[in-house]
């Protein structure tokens, strides 16, 4: 029986690793997956698991983008705080990037801390997931069509201003409230709408995921506590490891994909999936 649960954890890790970075909603897919392949765990553990499994995905970002997000070191220091001494080890451009990311996290962080349990009770169901999949799927197609002949005003993630960072954070707030929106999807839609290039939007959503997902995971662990059973700890660890490995592959794929393609294919995927989920719900196949 425990082997079956570990196999389920592997499946959840694969789904998390794929859907966390593609703008198709990891939380939405995890909710739908749990309707089909339920983990034999308590409701409290699963509520924590579906968030904390994202720590594996976070580690993939840290590994792949270490040189872009670590603000200390003399090598490749384009904007040192000083030419000599300790200041020569401080990368001011990366510190600025993190200050902007901090601004983007504030709206969702405040609302999440205050209303996380309420939102989970009200909105974590197939109806909300399917509707948000469709709405943001349409948004991707409309915005990409609008931007088709537009030149982006911002082409590098480090050039995103505080004002842009705040408004991107407001888009992310939608994802924090409504599952199916997609944290990465909301960030990318908001960034594209604000004149940020696809590459910069994708990179920014990767960086932004680190504090957002770490904070959400920490909050869930504190609420659940550290009293894991052996099988619960195994399920969580396996899910995180699989999510990490799959995330490495998916992030590399996405960065290569958007060099030659737009995000419309993800918009169509969201619309089709949302329609299928609604149909299955009306047919009583999922609840």
UniProtKB/TrEMBL annotation:
Q: Which GO terms describe its cellular component?
A: plasma membrane
Signal sequence extent: none
Native source species: Roseburia porci
Family per similarity comment? Belongs to the UppP family.
Mention one GO molecular function.
Answer: undecaprenyl-diphosphatase activity
| Record-linked PANTHER family | UNDECAPRENYL-DIPHOSPHATASE
Per the UniProt entry, what are the Gene Ontology biological process annotations, in alphabetical order? cell wall organization; peptidoglycan biosynthetic process; regulation of cell shape; response to antibiotic
Q: What is this protein called?
A: Undecaprenyl-diphosphatase
Record's HAMAP family? Undec_diphosphatase (MF_01006)
- Main role? Catalyzes the dephosphorylation of undecaprenyl diphosphate (UPP). Confers resistance to bacitracin.
Q: How does it sit in the membrane?
A: Multi-pass membrane protein
InterPro entries the record matches: UppP
- EC category name: hydrolase
Q: What else is known?
A: Bacitracin is thought to be involved in the inhibition of peptidoglycan synthesis by sequestering undecaprenyl diphosphate, thereby reducing the pool of lipid carrier available.
EC id: 3.6.1.27
What's in the keyword line of the UniProt record? Antibiotic resistance, Cell membrane, Cell shape, Cell wall biogenesis/degradation, Hydrolase, Membrane, Peptidoglycan synthesis, Transmembrane, Transmembrane helix
Q: Where in the cell is it found?
A: Cell membrane
For this protein, what reaction is catalysed?
di-trans,octa-cis-undecaprenyl diphosphate + H2O = di-trans,octa-cis-undecaprenyl phosphate + phosphate + H(+)
């Amino acid at each position: 029986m425990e082997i079956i649960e570990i196999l389920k954890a592997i499946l959840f890790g694969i789904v998390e690793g794929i859907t966390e970075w593609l703008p198709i909603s990891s939380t939405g897919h995890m909710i739908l997956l749990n309707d089909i392949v339920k983990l034999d765990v308590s409701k409290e553990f699963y509520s924590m698991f579906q968030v904390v499994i994202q720590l594996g995905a976070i580690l993939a970002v840290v590994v792949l983008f270490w040189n872009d997000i670590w603000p200390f070191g003399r090598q490749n220091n384009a904007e040192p705080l000083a030419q000599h001494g300790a200041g020569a080890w401080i990368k001011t451009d990366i510190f600025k990037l993190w200050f902007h990311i901090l601004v983007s996290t504030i709206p969702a962080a405040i609302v999440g801390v205050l209303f996380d349990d309420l939102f989970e009770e009200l909105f974590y169901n197939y109806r909300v997931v399917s509707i948000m999949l469709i709405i943001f799927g349409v948004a991707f197609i409309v915005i990409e069509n609008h931007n088709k002949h537009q030149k982006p005003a911002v082409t590098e993630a480090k050039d995103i201003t505080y004002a842009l960072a705040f408004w991107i954070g407001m888009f992310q707030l939608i994802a924090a409230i409504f599952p199916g929106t997609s944290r990465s999807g909301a960030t990318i839609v908001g960034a594209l709408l604000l004149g940020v290039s696809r590459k910069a939007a994708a990179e920014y959503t990767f960086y932004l995921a680190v504090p957002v997902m770490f904070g959400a995971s920490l909050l869930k662990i504190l609420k659940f506590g550290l009293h894991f059973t052996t099988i619960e700890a195994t399920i969580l660890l396996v899910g995180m490891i699989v999510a990490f490995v799959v995330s490495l592959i998916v992030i590399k794929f996405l960065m290569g994909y958007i060099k030659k393609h737009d995000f419309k294919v993800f918009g169509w995927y969201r619309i089709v999936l949302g329609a299928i989920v609604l149909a299955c719900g009306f047919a009583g196949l999922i609840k």
